[in-house]
Amino acid sequence: MPSASRVLTLPPLSFHLQHHTLRNGLRVVLAPDRQVPAVAIAVYYDVGFRSEPQGRTGFAHLFEHLMFQGSANLEKLEHFHYVQSSGGTFNGSTRLDYTNYYEVLPAHALERGLFLEADRMRSPRITEENLANQIDVVKEEIRVNVLNRPYGGFPWLQLPQLMYDTFPNAHNGYGGFEDLNNATVADASSFFDSYYAPANAVLSITGDFDPDQALEMVERHFAPIRRRRKPKRPDFAEPPLTAERRTVVVDELAPIPALAIGYRVTDPGADFRRYLATVLLAEILSNGDASRLHRSLVQSKGLVTDVSAYLGTFGDPLEERDPTRLNITAHYPDRGATDAVLAAVDAELVRLAEDGTEPGELHRACIQLAALISGELDNVMNRGQEFAKFELLFGDSSLILRLPGLLSEITDDDLRAVAAALTPTSRAVVEVVPGAAR
Amino acid sequence: MSAPTLVPGLTAPARPKKLSSSERVLASGLRVVAIRRPTVPMVEVRLRIPFFSAKPGHLARSSLLSRTLLTGTAEHDRTELAIALGDLGAELSVGVDADRLVLSASGIASGLPALLGLYAELLTSASYPSAEVAGERGRMLERIAMSRSQAGVVAGEALAERLAPGHPYGRTLPTEQEVTATTRAQLRSLHSSLVRPDGALLVIVGDISPARALAAAESALAGWTGTAPAPKAPPLPPIAASPLLVLDRPGSVQTAFRFGGPGVGRQDERYPALQLANLIFGGYISSRWVENIRERKGFSYSPRSAIEHSALRSSFTVSADVATEVTAPAMLETLYELGRMASGPVTEAELESVRQYAIGTLALSTATQAGLATTVSGLLGVGVELDWLVNHPLRLARVTVADVAEVSAQFLAPRALVGVAVGDAAAITGPLAGIVEVESSVGN
């Protein structure tokens, strides 16, 4: 029978981490765990959408594709072959503030994996032919994920344009077709020289390996890569919104309307406690059937088909630096209900700001997040990625392990303060309306 | 130290660790399997209940049941249930397909007895409150409309119909009329009839003692009893050779094409060879077809082929989304690569690569609590015992080039497959008709 009589706690996570920095500046995080039957390698470079040049929207992501097209000692297709024929899998992704590359392999393929990452850190093989091919592949990716899909790229492609005023924050990170077509091999060389220096990257190794042997392998393969200057990261800050911004976007493929609200939030690097209170707020607003927005907008008022509140561009609250945002999205059948949906969201934020949380609500949000983090870290590849990401963005790979404790220190007052700041004048609203069919 | 110029070889592989599981069949007929995996202080639960039915309306009813199962019981309303789960750091979701209903949960390991108590409450006293049924029915219609606005969903529906016309497997989404006609009384009746423990499977994996997990399950679920009537499964019709079906999506910037044909199940002696043949053709990025239409020609972002398993049948499927203007060339390359698999040998190097990939990814799929729970539930749920996980790599190791040629000739031949293409018919029908026999439809 359900009972809240006994309050559960989650034992702290303990993974042993070792840190090294090579002479060329590459930061290395080792997280051995002999229980796992595999080893995960992740390389994070401190460059993402925000750093791509004007006239080259989508370039950081296109460059990520090019990093798989061969390198100093490897022909095209060989990177894929070596990982997969070793029994492993791989991928890469591009975010606002980083680009990552990772593979998970049987433990006996560790050195091979390190060689593959080192070889492209040394010198990716970028040719006219590979560039043209990958421009085509990226355009197909954009067609399948954006152009040929209802709500394609919603809201991450629409919201930034409305709520930010500078190119780095506002532009389309997938890229316009014209900009993609204009990309050159020279652009790629220059991008590599600027941002792919060893000193601008973090390497993590997680799973079944001996740390001393692994460090020897890292030295063997990565230390010979020439040291290059670490680029200075520009300040991307923008002033907060002072008046509501609204826009309407027509989506020819969408069957029903949708909206996205964006609020600028605290810089996680400046006030981490306040930022974590915002993370908990998003949880309380929309995680599960007992959440505030679900109860009000879905169950009680029947206004929306679904509603979601989350931080960051892609739903990971801790994967970008300032400026970042809180998103609230909803799909709803009646276009005339837009203002009612906004009013219902406002009412829940005001209620939280004025009355605070219900008994047990804050603790529940903490334990749900702690459980989520535990589940994520069970996967050796996720764990390796988290360690590298936290090292890169926050200079502290073990911060992820301390998050449950830090979340539990957030108080009702912290939460009320962040809810009170989410006012109509501080938001941007993108409304999606179905196209000609309506 | 100079830079290495050769790719390092592999060191000696570690022996796979043996999986030790404990199990008990309860008096109710529920089979419970528990596996200790203390990697993080969490537990994963999978309850799998056979749910096949050929009765009219079952698709809509089972879908709506899965959406309303968590909205109320005799003792608690929707919010109270969600709070009880949240306090356990647990998430519980309900999934359904033509074969089974699955209640999947993860939660903090020390909360397992309470989590199983919630399972018991849902299984024995889910109440399907009228207002919740009405609300979810409306939202389900909106979600179906959203699904059908995606080319891939429309293509998937059409392919299912081609593979199993007139059979429950032939449909993936209910019609609006079927959903609208579904009543609370039907959901309660369906629950009462099919949500029964005899023949169901409960898998528990995590930071738990198997003995205590089995005892907790036995104690929590003692009140859940009964046997569902044996389903009358109509025989699957043979897959009939047919022209490529073109479904019009006016103005579409891409064509979603899907092919499907028969396959074999995991216990069939040809399965290891078919699994490897699929990988060589299009099952991973180093495959012939993906290298061709993605890495050489840039026609598609994520073309893929797969062996998919249902209780009554396994299938070989091929799917790609390609730009409208290259639809016919992409189709030509696809048929070429399929035909090349069916008519000529693969190389030893190709075979060795997919063999290692298949063995490695099988190990990875069971390397987490959640992955292990899902894999074990999926295998035992269709009658494959856990020694399969140990023996399958050995079978993969024995597959020869000749074995791959034999299954490819039978299952990967273009003539063995049926296909659909969802795209801008005005732009693609003509070019496609130059390559394959085409049948046009204004929709289904």
Q: Would you kindly provide a written description of the structure presented here, covering whatever features stand out?
A:
The complex is a heterodimer of chains A (438) and B (444). Chain A has 438 residues and is an alpha+beta fold. Chain A has two domains: 18-222, Metalloenzyme, LuxS/M16 peptidase-like (Cytochrome Bc1 Complex, Chain A, domain 1, 2-Layer Sandwich), CATH 3.30.830; 245-434, Metalloenzyme, LuxS/M16 peptidase-like (Cytochrome Bc1 Complex, Chain A, domain 1), CATH 3.30.830. Chain A is 41% helix and 16% strand. Chain A has a six-stranded mixed beta sheet with strand order 1-2-6-3-5-4, sandwiched between helices. In chain A, helix 3 runs parallel beside helix 9. Chain A is globular and about 60 Å long. The N and C termini of chain A lie far apart (48 Å). In chain A, 56% of the residues are buried. The model of chain A is unreliable at 1-5 (pLDDT under 50). Chain B is of the alpha+beta class. Chain B is 44% helix and 18% strand. Chain B contains 16 helices and twelve strands. Chain B has a six-stranded mixed beta sheet with strand order 1-2-6-3-5-4, with helices on both faces. A six-stranded mixed beta sheet of chain B has the order 9-10-8-11-7-12, with helices on both faces. In chain B, strand 9 (304-309) and strand 10 form a beta hairpin. The model of chain B has no long low-confidence stretch (mean pLDDT 95). Classes of the chains: A alpha+beta (438), B alpha+beta (444).
